[in-house]
Specification:
Chain lengths: 753, 160
């Protein structure tokens, strides 16, 4: 697919050929009401009828701040409202860079604020109209909670943070357009005030200047008048060569508060007279609370109340420690929901049986794979892969504070979609969503765990708050958090390919079993005449959720491990073998070539050291990674060096992009080496960070070389795409080092000689 | 049954029961929420503080056991005039934090390491920095520790 050198507002188109439904996206801009001391500008989305509804909505004065994306103060200060939560991915700074660049704003006067979680959007026909248009499928709107894992609904209108969507959707479509349109309004206002033609005016550093007369006006002086002007709906955006802020390594504004302890996360929030609670839910997912004698907890000093939920027991106390002691004093009886026979092994066995039964639930691909497998001279290669449940293990355990007063619920904390969080809380508390206020706070990680549709703590705290006369903060212990995750699904796959006499892949079939079809989300990048990807649906008693990079992690592991096996079977170099199955001159080839070059691919390594390569496209971004590794005495992997080459089209903030790719790669390596959630008798075996093994500094690669190719292609995501190639690159490196092919994750000590 | 200790240079009397972990006394009684709860079992290091200068996981030490001792938390690292500790400044310069939740503990661990070793070697950094960072900021943590001690950047393996 040809690279697109120009920024545009079309929907994401993957760089791969798979047939995906086209998505249309149109934006309309309307100037909104004036704010005291400056101008506020709003961007609304939808068709023309939605536009008039939006206008009516804002002009009634109801919630007109909500849809405002920015304001300019009379002191020139520009405030950008981000609909995304920044949990460390740096999107707030990136979004502001994009808007401010188009606006020609003085960066020192720009700040970013979290947009409030307001109901006006998700619950108005406007929101629905926008979503229907974007998705091309109105049904998606009604299925919103589950649609979170679909690509379409990940964009900004719902305040969802996920799918690496902030910069590529919100930024490209929203922030840049708003910045450019407001800039034009400021020019128009200046032209009127100065009595000169608009085309004689230029903008820079938050000023409009007229060279001929030497006059200039500050944005702050122009803001009030400009805000009353109608905004251009599709202003021309800057060419790459004119970027002043996009692409610059600007320091993140949130960092100083994160090094001196002053940043306030959800778990840090406090209200006067607040109590603290902690919870124990049925150890087996699907189990219910049968009985609990609350007396032992009530006997603990500081404990005030024991609350029974359908599937859990909560202890409320003056402080966390007292609540925890109270909880530990209890001996609640839970049912197992009939899942006592579920184990890690039973899940794999059930998955194998399902695959062997041969009735896929979904199928993608093209060409006649079976014919190619049966062709004379075809060399058939097959392999089975398995990956376990993975836990997010965000560093901040779940904590929400809630207060129920006068029929209204107010709550505070960190969730990936503030608007649907309100909807869920309203449902749990059995009140109208308009009677729920949610205050989004900084999150200590998320990685997919904080999507409200999989976040039961919202229900728990909403129900709890109704039963106590004071504000209450519900904190999950780490044990609770590890054992009641919404894990990346345990998944297994059988891969089969036919090699022709020229050492090229004639046909490829992936049969994978897990909850959730990955076809729409994952890219198959190789040009192979016949391909088949068959999904067999399997759901255990666990709740599966999106884990950073979602299905691209395990599918990436399957594909890129198998590519190495095919290269070996045909006696070819793993890099060259991949290269010849990628379109000539494609972005894929360039990314692969660059990582090979930077890593010194093919150069000699000491005995016992191996190099592995992998390339995966996810969330619109192509990432190739090389890992150099050996084994420790116990056979566990020792990472020596790592490289990543990334084509995400345009890098908005290279400092931050590097951090995201490097961090993503470490998360991928960590999961491959030691992470697994195991199930026994229906319950999770691991209980804390002592036995859910996350990579530490000493075991991380001491060096990760991250390089970006500024192709100018459609902007891809950056938060997730660093993860998927990592596990396969490491497995391939270990094979090169030891001759052992690891097909089941985690690797642990499997490479032991 | 008050326990007396010194926190960030100030004497304090706390009323929490003696078995209460120092972490919860800091967070809930003294409102020093920069020290984080991560695991409660000393596995992750998010709660790291200094007790009489020694790096200590505050989730796993009872407040009674720090009676009469000096505790330094992340809030106590700045000098009296508000100047950041050189390690905090190095953290900003290297743009270390992502979500930031573990970074108080990481910084406390790094400060203790530097106080002990002056200029830690890579092996000493590996050994001392056992705090978990789920965002994977390790290469920048290594870089910040090294730059805070003035070691030449060229000598650093982890210059990512």
């Amino acid at each position: 697919m040809a690279d697109n050198p120009n920024p545009n507002l079309d929907a994401e188109t993957p760089a791969t050929p798979p047939k995906k439904k086209g998505v249309k996206r149109r934006a309309f801009l309307i100037g909104s009401a004036l704010l005291a001391g400056g101008g506020a500008f709003g961007l609304y989305w939808g068709d023309s009828s939605a536009r008039s509804r939006a206008k009516a909505l804002t002009e009634t004065g109801k919630d007109h701040n909500f849809l405002s994306w920015m304001k300019i103060g009379e002191d020139d200060r520009v405030t950008v409202y981000s609909p995304h939560i920044d949990f460390g991915q740096g999107s707030h700074t990136g979004l502001a860079q994009m808007l401010a660049d188009e606006l020609d704003a003085d960066w020192s006067k720009v700040r970013v604020e979290q947009a409030p979680a307001d109901s006006a959007f998700a619950n108005t026909p406007l929101g629905r109209g926008f979503l229907a248009e974007v998705s091309g499928a109105p049904g998606v709107i009604n299925a919103l909670p589950t649609a979170i894992i679909s690509m379409i609904t990940r964009s900004m209108p719902l305040q969802i943070t996920g799918g690496s969507s902030a910069l590529r959707f919100t930024g490209q479509v929203g922030m840049r357009t708003v910045g450019a349109a407001v800039r034009l309004a400021l020019i128009e206002e200046a032209a009127a005030r100065l009595g000169v033609p608009a085309n004689e005016l230029t903008t820079a550093d938050s000023k409009v200047s007229h060279a001929k007369s030497g006059k200039s006006l500050r944005y702050g002086e122009l803001a009030a008048g400009a805000a009353g002007r109608s905004l251009e709906s599709s202003p021309k955006l800057k060419d790459r060569k004119d970027y002043k802020l996009i692409g610059k390594p600007i320091a993140r504004a949130d960092i100083p508060a994160k090094v001196d302890g002053s940043a306030v996360y959800g778990i840090d929030f406090k209200l006067p007279n607040m109590r603290v609670a902690t919870i124990s839910a049925a150890p087996v997912r699907g189990g219910k609370l049968l009985s609990v004698d609350e007396k032992p907890a009530m006997a603990v000093s500081g404990v005030e109340k024991v609350v029974r939920l359908d599937d859990a027991v909560i202890v409320v106390a003056k402080g966390y420690w007292q609540a925890l002691k109270g909880l530990q004093a209890l001996a609640p009886k839970f049912s197992d929901g009939g899942h006592s026979g579920v184990s890690t092994a039973s899940i794999y066995a059930a998955q194998d049986a399902l695959r062997k039964a041969g009735k896929p639930d979904n199928e993608g691909g093209e060409g006649d794979v079976d014919a190619a497998f049966g062709a004379a001279g075809a060399k058939l290669i097959e392999a089975d892969y398995r990956v376990p449940f993975l836990h997010h293990a965000m560093m901040e355990p779940f904590a929400l504070t809630a207060q129920f007063k006068g029929g209204k619920l107010e709550f505070w904390g960190g969730l990936q979609d503030p608007l649907s969080a309100r909807v869920r809380a309203a449902k749990a508390a059995d009140i109208d969503v308009d009677d729920v206020v949610f205050h989004p706070m900084i999150m200590g990680g998320g990685f997919g765990r904080r999507f409200p549709d999989v976040t039961e703590i919202i229900d728990q705290v909403a129900i709890l708050a109704k039963q106590v006369p004071y504000p209450v903060k519900l904190i999950w212990s780490r044990e609770e958090e590890v054992q009641h995750g919404t894990y990346r699904p345990q998944s297994s796959a059988h891969l089969k390919a036919a090699l022709d006499k020229n050492g090229k892949i004639a046909a490829w079939r992936t049969d994978y079993v897990q909850s959730g079809d990955a076809e729409a989300e994952t890219s198959f990048i190789y040009a192979i005449p016949a391909t088949s990807r068959r999904h067999f649906n399997y759901q255990s008693n666990q709740i599966d959720g999106p884990w950073r990079s979602v299905n691209s992690t395990q599918i990436g592991f399957y594909n890129e491990s198998f590519m190495d096996e095919l290269a070996l079977a045909s006696g070819q170099d793993a890099y060259q073998f991949r290269r010849k199955h990628l379109p000539e001159g494609s972005r894929y080839q360039k990314v692969l070539d660059e990582v090979a070059k930077r890593s010194g691919w093919g150069s000699e390594l000491p005995k016992g050291v191996g190099r592995g390569i992998a390339i995966v496209e996810s969330f619109g971004t192509i990432v190739a990674e090389v890992v150099e590794a050996t084994t420790k005495d116990d056979g566990s992997p020792k990472l020596l060096k790592a490289w990543a080459v990334v084509d995400c089209g345009t890098t908005v903030n290279p400092l931050n992009a590097e951090a995201q790719i490097s961090g993503g790669m470490i998360m991928g390596l960590s999961s491959a080496i030691g992470e697994a959630i195991n199930i026994d008798k229906g319950a999770v075996v691991e209980s804390n960070l002592a036995d859910y093994q996350i990579l530490k500094l000493a075991d991380a690669p001491p060096m990760i070389d991250v390089h970006f190719i500024e192709s100018g292609a459609k902007m891809g995501g950056i938060g997730e795409p660093g993860v998927p190639p990592a596990s396969a690159a490491l497995a391939n490196a270990l094979f090169a080092a030891t001759g052992k092919r690891i097909r089941t994750l985690p690797m642990l000590t499997q490479a032991k000689a | 049954m008050a326990v007396s200790l010194n926190v960030n240079g100030k004497p304090v009397n706390v009323t929490a029961e003696p078995d209460t972990p120092l972490l919860w006394v800091l967070r809930e009684e003294l409102a020093l929420t920069g020290t984080k709860f991560g695991c409660g079992v000393a596995a992750c290091g998010a709660c790291s503080v200094h007790v009489n200068g020694e790096i200590t996981r505050s989730c796993s030490i009872a407040v009674a056991d720090v009676a009469g001792k000096s505790v330094t938390t992340i809030e106590g690292l700045k000098s009296a005039d508000g100047t950041l500790h050189k390690v905090q400044q190095a953290w900003i310069d290297a743009q270390v934090p992502q979500c930031g939740y573990c970074q108080s503990g990481q910084i406390m661990a790094a400060v203790a390491l530097i106080q002990k070793t002056g200029s830690p070697s890579d092996a000493q950094i590996d050994e001392a920095m056992t705090n978990i960072c789920r965002c994977g900021t390790y290469p920048r943590i290594r870089k910040a520790i090294v730059s805070a001690t003035g070691r030449a950047a060229a000598a650093v393996k982890g210059d990512a």
